[in-house]
Amino acid sequence: MSFPPPPPERNRRIAPRRALRQAVTVAYGGTSKVVQTWDLGREGMCLLAARPIAPGTRCQVTFDLPLGKELIHITASVKVVYSSYSAAGDFKIGAVFMDLADDAALALGKFAASS
Questions:
Q1: Which tens digit of pLDDT belongs to each residue from 4-17?
Q2: Is-above-0.90 flag for pTM?
Q3: What is the DSSP letter of 43?
Q4: Distance separating alpha carbons of residues 102 and 109, to the nearest angstrom
């Protein structure tokens, strides 16, 4: 499965994002599941999941952010802004961070800005 990035003229994001493929735990509505990250940045993230999560759903995400030689543990609240069908059992979930702690925001900004 491969999704090309949007052309620069179509990218409406406020802040840059960087690809990251790893497990993240998403908790909402009394359930918790492990999904895959697609990309992330200071303002939000995209996840790959087997089932959709309804737009407007508020979730808690937990993951380790690789920053240089460190792993920064991130726990943050997100709000789902879209859930897009890609293929059978494959949904892209777009989420924005809500009330992100300053240290997490700084780490995510550094991660997105690095190459």
A1: 555 555 445 567 88
A2: no
A3: S
A4: 10
Nearest CA to 114 among 79, 73, 70, 80? Answer: 70
Model confidence pLDDT, tens digit, residues 22-70: 999 999 999 999 999 999 999 999 999 999 999 999 999 999 999 989 9
Distance CA 104, CA 49 (A): 23
Per-residue confidence (pLDDT) for residue 11, from 0 to 100: 47
Which residues pair with residue 40 across a beta bridge? 18, 45
CATH class of 15-113: mainly beta
What's the token pair of residue 65? 């952010």
